[in-house]
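During the reporting period, our protein records have gained a structure token line. A sample record is set out beneath this paragraph:
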Amino acid sequence: MNNPLQSPTVKNPDVLIPVNPAIERYLQGLVTNTDHPVLLEMEALAEKNNFPIVGRLVGTFLETMAKSINAKRVFEFGSGYGYSAYWFANAVGENGQVICSEADIVNQQKAQGYLTAADLWQRVDFKAGMAQAIFNDTEGEFDICYNDVDKCDYPEIWQMAKDRIRPGGLYIADNVLWRGRVAVTEYKDVFQGWTEAIMVHNKMIFDDPEFDAFINPIRDGVMVARKKTA
């Protein structure tokens, strides 16, 4: 499968790791001060069930980004069982709110248990259902819109979210390097069309004159796009 937006230098990688594993291990060693028992339990469940969570490095990054703009209202497109919400809820403080959306009601129940144990549930409004529908039913602007749904929906989510982020606010998306597939000429996709959707999503954001964008390559690539102020 070929794409003119891709680099011509690498073909058919099983995994193309953007950050040297030794660097990742070093960075992981710097964030052990966040070993909250709830985090450890959530991470153990992810490892046991091979459930995709952003992990400690990205979680710390999300919290730092949210605190850097004094975020008080966050919308999550795709919340799993609340791992990323843990970090955002820490950042928004007692008077902030993280609106979560998750199609699987079992994950909603797990999230309530974990975030209650972490004394963060009161900052979370966790809704079961399709993220797009929940977003359309939620009024107002957001300090951060966070995207971690099925990758085929990434361009649609960006188009929905971009006009409802306040000036100076952030759009953040996980998995934007997609195990390196965006950077090669040939690849085996997880689901047909997902890599192309991510590539379209990424280019749309970098081409948008209303946003400044950057990709942090840790883990699987995290997009951060800041809406410009007047």
